Amino acid sequence: MTPSFLPMHQRLLKKIESRSAVSAVIGLGYVGLPLAMELCEAGFRVVGYDVSERVCALLMRGESHIQDIPAAQVAKHVKSGKFVASTDEKILAEADTVSIAVPTPLAKTRDPDMSYVLSASETVARQAHPGMLIVLESTTYPGTTRELLQPRLEAEGLMVGETVFLAFSPERVDPGNPVYHTKNTPKVVGGITPACNEVAVAFYASTVDTVVPVSSPEAAELVKL
């Protein structure tokens, strides 16, 4: 039982440490599904959200659509109840941490198509609650986390750094690489505030071998570029 008198970020740290935090992953593709599986392996219960009914149905049958993730691993965590995939965004409301791993394909102008990130930010904002960590992992331009996600969360009456925690941590997935995968690839993390950074670093350190904190989400966003 996490003491209610602790500051909100300390309560979330306790949940992460005890693995009682529920982790959500938005986007169950070549970035999101490996992350979801690693979180399950680390002891978290994971809820996966994807707009594709086909993908969610496949995963709930214990199958995999990602070459780096064996079906047996998916089946194991579905059977144990550690992992569930759904197209219903309300599943996110029970989460303590949310990792956004949606695509940002290049448009014809060579600019990133931000429609998926915009849609995901709207979805998260509708389901966000005090005590939640939100991390954007999608490849994007510096400033996205602060300029796009923070105002949307605060429009719901949430205060970033006090009641919710927001960070950027660029995905670094090399599909098919036999050596480097989600767990052993160093993870850069940059939070909006020191409390955001502390919570996000603790979350990824529970799953990834090496976490590299940086000074801000902009620094983390620039790292990927």
Unreliable sequence segments: none
Number of strands: 8
Secondary-structure-derived class? alpha/beta
Mean pLDDT: 94
Q: What spatial order of strands do you see in the largest sheet?
A: 3-2-1-4-5-6-7-8
Helix content: 25-40%
Q: Percent of residues in beta strands?
A: 15-25%
Major β-sheet profile: 8 strands, mixed
Number of helices, counting only DSSP H or I runs of 4 residues or more: 8
How would you describe the oligomerization state of the chains in this entry? Answer: single chain
Through-space gap between termini? 41 Å
Shape: globular
Question: Radius of gyration over alpha carbons?
Answer: 16 Å
Helices and strands, in N-to-C order? HEHEHHEEHEHEEHEH
Question: Overview of this structure, please?
Answer:
The protein has 225 residues and is an alpha/beta fold. The chain contains 8 helices and 8 strands; from the N terminus they run H-E-H-E-H-H-E-E-H-E-H-E-E-H-E-H. It has an 8-stranded mixed beta sheet, with helices on both faces. Strand 1, helix 2 and strand 2 form a beta-alpha-beta unit.
In short:
With 225 residues, the chain is an alpha/beta fold. 37% of the residues lie in helices and 16% in strands.
Secondary-structure blueprint:
Layout: H1 8-18, E1 22-26, H2 32-41, E2 45-49, H3 53-60, H4 71-80, E3 83-86, E4 97-100, H5 115-127, E5 132-136, H6 144-154, E6 164-168, E7 187-191, H7 194-205, E8 211-213, H8 217-224
Parallel strand pairs: 1-2, 1-4, 2-3, 4-5, 5-6, 7-8
Antiparallel strand pairs: 6-7
Helix pairs in contact: 1-7, 5-6
